[in-house]
Specification:
about 150 residues; alpha+beta; 7 strands; globular
């Protein structure tokens, strides 16, 4: 199942501060819902373990994320994949951009993902609603961390 999601949030911090926090494993671990482990891997990326629940399906996902097209402190592309055992898999990418504003930094994102396994059988509406909820929770946590 393919999924696309877009969003933006105005953050009350400079673009440089937002960029630094977006690349800090400790900050990200505290902000990602269900994140149990997050550590920097070789090169520009991270390894993670997160426990997620989508409708009746609950799983521990192990994944890798790499950062591409780095343009500090303006933008990057996140490319990742995660395996959740019998629950399924997710893979895809997100373009993240930071635009300086007088009142802070506007963060925009565009996600394209593929989901398979039991997760894909749950239906696009439930999966999309859960993904949006998790994104909103992440950004609320991230805004507080700034």
């Amino acid at each position: 199942m393919a999924m696309t999601m877009n969003g933006e949030i105005l953050l009350a911090a400079s673009r440089e501060v937002v960029w630094t926090k977006l690349n800090d494993p400790a900050v990200l671990k505290a902000c990602i819902p269900g994140c149990e482990e997050l550590e920097r891997s070789d090169g520009e990326g991270f390894r993670a373990i997160a426990k997620m629940k989508v409708g009746p399906v609950s799983a521990r996902f192990k994944g890798r994320v790499t950062l591409n097209d780095l343009d500090p402190p303006r933008s990057y592309t996140i490319v990742g994949e995660g395996e959740g055992g019998v629950a399924g898999f997710a893979k895809g990418g997100a373009k993240v951009s930071l635009l300086e504003r007088d009142d802070g930094t506007l963060l925009t994102y565009h996600v394209d993902a593929q989901i398979g396994g039991r997760l894909a059988q749950l239906g696009q509406r439930l999966v999309h609603r859960t993904a949006k909820k998790l994104a909103d929770e992440f950004f609320a946590n991230f805004a507080r961390a700034l």
